[in-house]
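Problem 12. The chain below contains 508 residues. Write out its predicted structure in token notation.
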Amino acid sequence: MPTLRLILPDQLSKQNPVLENIESDDFILFYEPLDTFYEDGHHKQKIVFLISSMRQFIAKQNHKKIIHRKIHKKNVKFKDDLLKIALDKKIKRIIASKPSDFKTYKDLMFSCQTKNIELTILEDKNFISSSEDFTDWAEGKKTRIQEYYYRWLRKKYNIFMNEDSKPVGDKWNFDKENRNPIPDGVPVPHIDGFKPKPEVKAVIPLVKKFFPKHFGDIEPFWFGITREDAQKALALFIEKALPHFGEYQDAMLDGEAFLFHSVLSQYLNVGLLDPMEVCQQVELEYHQGHISLPCAEGFIRQIIGWREFIRGIYWHYMPDYQDFNAMNYAGKLPDLYWGEKTKMRCLSHTVAETRRHAYSHHIQRLMITGNFATLIGVRPELIHEWYLIVYIDAFEWVEMPNTMGMATFADGGIVGTKPYISGGNYINKMSNFCDKCHYKIKKKNGTDACPFNYLYWNYLITHHDKLKFNHRLRMPLATLARMSREKIAEIKRDSQRFLQKIENGNVI
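Solution.
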């Protein structure tokens, strides 16, 4: 009996084990998940990227028995369609790399069990660590700290290590050197985009036709869709942006969507770039004297530390993780997240960039959109759904823990050790968004004060009982304890007025 080998749009790695040891009578199924595109409502550019990347990948395959399930008008469920294909081809065995999200994994398991089809799940090669690595490391630990998993992986896979098994530079982490605003006069590199390939030109009309109401501009589309494109993007990043990535990775500037960021995550997350390959190239740049140690370590930490850790968290805690709401948030997501008018310039700017590029960098996500959603108490599933929809690099395994754990603290401290919240001063320090804003950054209270200023303290007041023992909030909570009753009443009054405007659908 033939075997069906399944490939999904985020499994385009040259190392995908599904494409190894193929027998002549095996079928390779390349599946464009229409139900996911409809139900998750992805940004138009994200759908173009996923489909175009898969179609160019298919064109390079030599196997004669390829099944290509393309998007079409009629929405069909993946699990039903998979069974239909299997029955039509008399398939008794399916081989797949582990899907990147729990729902697809569950659907795949269920479909095979219902029809007694043998299912073999292989390791996802889009990562450096294996599924067992995180389980082995996490076993017996009461808390799971990203920094220690990062160190463990560097040792295990000998990444950025000296011959004496100590970290390069004799220090594991240079994060303190990675938090500088951009001074005036520092030239920002231009990100060279890619001219749309034939696959892109063919897919754009389909996306316009099938998903006309989805969020986001579909053009200009400038992302690469091949491994060669991704490698070129990596080379350009290393040459133009990496030398300053470390020191300015937390900075934000009006009119500069990318700054010194790599914009490589979408290529990593679909398999067009190999994470080990990326780390090795960055390490080489350091040893050749082209970049500083904080730059090299800061970027490697994003991949070895954060990316691998977040994926481990996702699979370790799912399916329960998606329902966590430790702080009992119950608010709605304001319409400004979908592009409706707002007087808050930082939010208006970030959402506009997101609409245009299907991208904003991690500080805009964490300290602008995530920070605001947390301060106003948006229900976790609503902001989670928004992030999953709008970003080209957002897949549930990476987006959900970053949102539920890092941005909103909805998981109660599994990922982050504190809520990542701030008042307006942080945004003003790291950006120029506040310069021409309707609200006054230096005002703490009143109708024209920056809402971040009073909402920050209102959050600490509201959630005081749950946060009072958090050692990382000792200083702001001590400041709160010294506030007068009149000041606290003023904070509550301003916050309630603002939250009521959101509830009423007014422009904020």
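Discussion. The chain has a mean pLDDT of 93. Students who got a different answer should revisit the alignment rule from Section 12.3.
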